[in-house]
Amino acid sequence: MMRFARLYYRLVKFEHTIFALPFAYVGAFLAVGGVPSAHDLFWITVAMVAARSLAMALNRLIDARIDAANPRTASRELPSGALSRVAVIAFCLGSLTVYLVAVWQLDPLVRWLSPVPVIAFVVYPYLKRYTWLCHFWLGAVDGLAPVGAWAAITGHLPWQAWALGGAVGTWVAGFDLFYALFDVDVDREQGLHSWATRFGVDGAFAGARILHLITVVLLAAVGIGLDVGILYWLGVLIVAALLFYEHTLVRPGDLRRLDAAFFTMNGVISVAFFAFVLADVL
Q1: Fewer CB within 10 Å, N side or C side of the chain?
Q2: Distance CA 185, CA 150 (A)
Q3: Residue 224: burial class (beta carbons within 10 Å; 0-12, 13-18, 19+)
Q4: Contact 78, 67 (CB under 8 A)
Q5: What is the band of 118 on the pLDDT scale with cuts at 50, 70, 90?
Q6: In DSSP terms, which residues pair with 251 in a beta bridge?
Q7: Are 164 and 147 contacting, i.e. CB atoms less than 8 angstroms apart?
Q8: Among 7-21, 49-63, 87-101, which is the least confidently predicted range?
Q9: DSSP three-state, residue 251
Q10: Measured between alpha carbons, how far apart are the two ends of the chain, in Å?
Q11: Listed residue (146, 134, 205, 178) closest to 266, CA to CA
């Protein structure tokens, strides 16, 4: 059991939940301008973890053949044979069940909207086969986290909720442009599409800078549209500073610190911003 638990943990890269979950909490806390009920926070957490696990498992399942042909990903659980397709399908069904149970405990609006992210999860892995716009789809999917949490708390989706979702979407799409640099040569060989295969490494850096600038602008717009305090604005400044630092870690021709830029810094950004929002509403 522990062996399978470790394999599933690695399959969905559970530690990367830290990217999206804090922003879901940001959506929930800003929606009420305070602390939501323990009931809502618990079921939002369960829904988020289950949804992300489902998304990652579906991605691994659909991309198993592509991963097997890529030296960087050939050792993943499905291509290596550590987990069977049946085992991953069973995990997907379990995650989907938990997700549906969780959303059913929240506002009726999210029950009606619950199929939207599931459909988006299925579509995303196929997009890289057809278009370099796949990064924006991934950003839009992750941007649903704060939007969904906002709806789960209030049953309404004002423009501030969408702006917050947009900020998360451009943030995720921006660092996904960096992430695609790991595989740009292999992607070209396999006929796969990404921003980097279409516009080159320099284009990926330029696109990420623009997207992350939009992230900061949208976070500022959310603050203007809500009754927030100085700590929220300090959080926005911290996000801007961390994004700027992230872009100093890597440059065209020098990707040695790409792991730090992608994994470490984005986890710090997510947690830090939530901490400032939490302090602001308390």
Answers
A1: N
A2: 40
A3: exposed
A4: yes
A5: very high
A6: 254
A7: yes
A8: 7-21
A9: strand
A10: 41
A11: 178
